[in-house]
Amino acid sequence: MFPEVLKRVGEQLSNALPFVVYRKPNRKEIHAILQKDDMVHHTSDFSEKGFVFAPFAKQSPVILLPYDEQLTAEIPSDNPFVMGAVDTLESVAQDKDYHLHLVAQGIQEIHKGRLDKVVLSRKMEVDCPSAPLEVFQRLLATYDTAFCYLWYHPKVGMWLGATPEILLRTSNNSLTTMSLAGTKPFVEGVRPAWGKKELEEQRLVTDYILRALEDKVSNIRESEVESSQAGNLWHLRTRITAVYKNNLRAIIEALHPTPAVCGMPLQPAQRFIAENEQYDREYYTGFLGELNLRQEISRAKSERNQENKSYKVIKTATELFVNLRCMKLTDSKATVFIGGGITRDSDPEKEWQETVAKSNTILRVINP
């Protein structure tokens, strides 16, 4: 039952023991993974089993919560938690001048031919009067199509978010990933009209992923570009599918970080971010999710076989999401992270407004 799972998660938090509680996109149940001790575990080659939490910096270790205890419960339809309202422009106005300058620097580097794209971000600290599990339930009630999570380790910190972006999904030897770029505000009943800047940004991300995977997978295919709604925003999305062998580590290392969270060429973009953003992203724009989860799936046999109507298929699945639309919780404060992709046709003022629109996703669930 839903209340019992939240109660166990609350006890885990009271005892300062690691946990993650989450809901996958368009699903009606929550999952919780509870660690029995407070050790910090890491992956070595992504052959382990557990829930991974990875930072933006590739050289930093990836944290692993082992599947010590797993709980699942259906989310009740009468979730009473609803989003509040925040005057985002007022709360972050002091950051605007620097972010405009940062974006202008990025555009200048692109025009000089040193970058094709760079993703620039900022952080803001706000009061968070609500308890973490209340904020998590507000996310569940507000963002059906996002991966919503609350993650905690006493030796690392507490993070919470609602991300629309898949890094990858695997089921046995099949793989799915996506390129996600471009942002427009959601308006009820109005389909987004995409311009040159957004379409170019989306193509850059898609082409990068295809090149990164081409020598590591087979039967690679891409879908048509589609508009995808995530909360109060629209994005452009392309699905990419392929078949892979026993090389999950190589695939993850090839995909992370994608141009959707860093830029391209990759190393110059990483260097520009490190030298100019003036803060540590930590786990923002990293990735998180289930690693090598063993699943049993019941399937119906032929109707002619009445003696044995179903059978079970065992599969190993990995499902990882890019850590966007997230915040770090500390005492009664929340550090919120937001960013956007900068290309040749970017306008600093419009890029600022995009970060404001994105910040609403997470800010509106902080206050009751």
TrEMBL record:
Show where the Chorismate-utilising enzyme C-terminal domain sits: 98-296, 316-358
Gene3D superfamilies (UniProt xref): Anthranilate synthase
**What SUPFAM superfamilies does this protein's entry cite?**
ADC synthase
Q: Which InterPro entries match?
A: ADC_synthase, Chorismate_C
The protein here is known as Chorismate-binding protein
